[in-house]
Design brief:
ADP_Glu_pyroP_CS, alpha/beta, Nucleotide-diphossugar_trans, glucose-1-phosphate adenylyltransferase activity, transferase, single chain, nine-stranded mixed beta sheet
């Protein structure tokens, strides 16, 4: 029998977001910013999804651990997430790696990024900890996961996805019994264990964990004293609890948020250029798999004060138009065409230019007569007049970062080399 609660468990929980990773598979897109700080969806950053899920779930105490090139990430959080108020028992702590335990150590792993801030967490006195990755795109109600954790009597509850067995080799994978108790946890196995009764699918870790706070502290201290540990949740903490305690799997299907138009659950690791490109273009579909217009579960972000988007000129061959595209504020489409594309804040398109299947980050300028197809433009890029990308694969590969799927990443440095 499920227990009833006098108030949501999220009110006594703290969300702790691990946002220190570089995301090296995004190549030059993360040369100057951490992966969680990468722009997404026209107006947001990747980290906004985990933070919005926490707020929308009712969690009002949040910590974010940063490390790699964190300036733009910290600046974004200071601007977008400064509405938490201590007088309402709310808190938002940004926790850069600051050598608080030892002057010689940065965060050595995901578990260490929590261990080094135990004293800060203790000051907030949360009953439960929700550990989150800061680099995935999804909508999820953590309150439902907290309820399962308490009802099951688990030492740790692990958020998981049902994935085809062939795709599970890139995840941490759980073997479970018929009651969802985890019997083994292995990182990136060549032969993943499958779900009981379903030999074609496996349970892959989402990098989301729920603990009772004091139990988590005990595990972190034990792990810190263990020689040879990598100080990692997936590699060390979770496997130890599976062997010596009770770990339970929580399926994303049970707590994912879907608006009326959303058919299935949506979760994406946008860790490669192709995955990042595809996830952004998903939003241009007539009925997108991820609904960014859901006012009941909004994705909070920095609301820039800027002018509305503008489309100008209306003559044959020089008509400002956008088809199946997302056009953000402060954009000017001047006698140009955007087709199945995302234009982030402040993008300017000159006359006779055209973009198709393009993800154009903030404050880019596209010169007159340029034609771009299947591109990602890093922020601030100025495309010269008449430049053509997406029509000659060999030429594109010599000038820009071109993926196996034919997506070209274009940065300022790459454009500078053309001049």
């Amino acid at each position: 029998m499920r227990k009833s609660y006098s108030q949501p468990l999220a009110r006594d929980a703290m969300a702790y977001v691990l946002a220190g990773g570089r995301g090296s598979r995004l190549k030059e897109l993360t040369d100057n910013r951490a992966k969680p700080a990468v722009y997404f969806g026209g107006v947001s950053r990747i980290i906004d999804f985990a933070l919005s899920n926490a707020i929308n779930s009712g969690i009002r105490r949040i910590g974010v651990a940063t490390q790699y090139k964190a300036h733009s990430l910290i600046r974004h959080m200071n601007r977008a997430w400064n509405f938490m108020r201590p007088e309402r028992n709310e808190s938002f702590d940004i926790l850069p790696a600051s050598q608080r335990i030892s002057e010689l150590l940065w965060y050595e792993g995901t578990a260490d990024a929590v261990y080094q801030n135990i004293d800060i967490i203790q000051a907030h006195a949360p009953k439960h900890m929700v550990i989150l990755a800061g680099d995935h795109i999804y909508k999820m109600d953590y309150e439902l996961m907290l309820q399962q954790h308490v009802n099951s009597g688990a030492d740790v509850t692990v958020g998981c996805l049902v994935v085809p067995k062939a795709e599970a080799t890139g995840f941490g994978v759980m073997a479970v019994d018929e009651n969802s108790v985890i019997t083994s946890f292995v990182e990136k196995p060549a032969d993943p264990p499958t779900i009981p009764g379903d030999p074609d699918h496996a349970l892959a870790s989402m990098g989301i964990y729920v603990f009772e706070t004091q139990f988590l502290f005990d595990q972190l201290r034990r792990d810190a004293a263990t020689p040879g540990s990598n100080r990692d949740f997936g590699g060390d903490i979770i496997p130890y609890i599976v062997q010596h305690g009770k770990a339970v799997a929580h399926r994303f299907t049970d707590s994912c948020i879907r608006a009326a138009e959303e058919i299935g659950e949506y979760w994406r690791d946008v860790g490669t250029l192709d995955a990042y490109f595809d996830a952004n273009l998903d939003l241009t579909d007539t009925v997108p798999a991820l609904n960014m217009y859901d006012r009941e579960w909004p994705i909070w972000t920095d609301q820039i004060i800027a002018a509305p988007a503008k489309f100008v000129h209306d003559e044959e061959g020089r008509r400002g138009m956008a088809i199946s595209s997302l056009i953000s504020q402060d954009c000017i489409v001047s006698g140009a065409l955007a087709k199945r594309s995302l234009l982030f804040t402040g993008v300017k398109m000159g006359s006779f230019s055209r973009v198709e299947e393009a993800v154009i980050l903030p404050y880019c300028n596209i010169g007159r007569g340029a034609r771009l197809k299947r591109v990602i433009l890093d922020s601030g890029v100025r495309i010269p007049e008449g430049l053509v990308v997406g029509e000659d694969p060999e030429l594109d590969a010599r000038r820009f970062r071109r993926t196996d799927n034919g997506v070209c990443l274009i940065t300022k440095a790459m454009i500078d080399k053309l001049v």
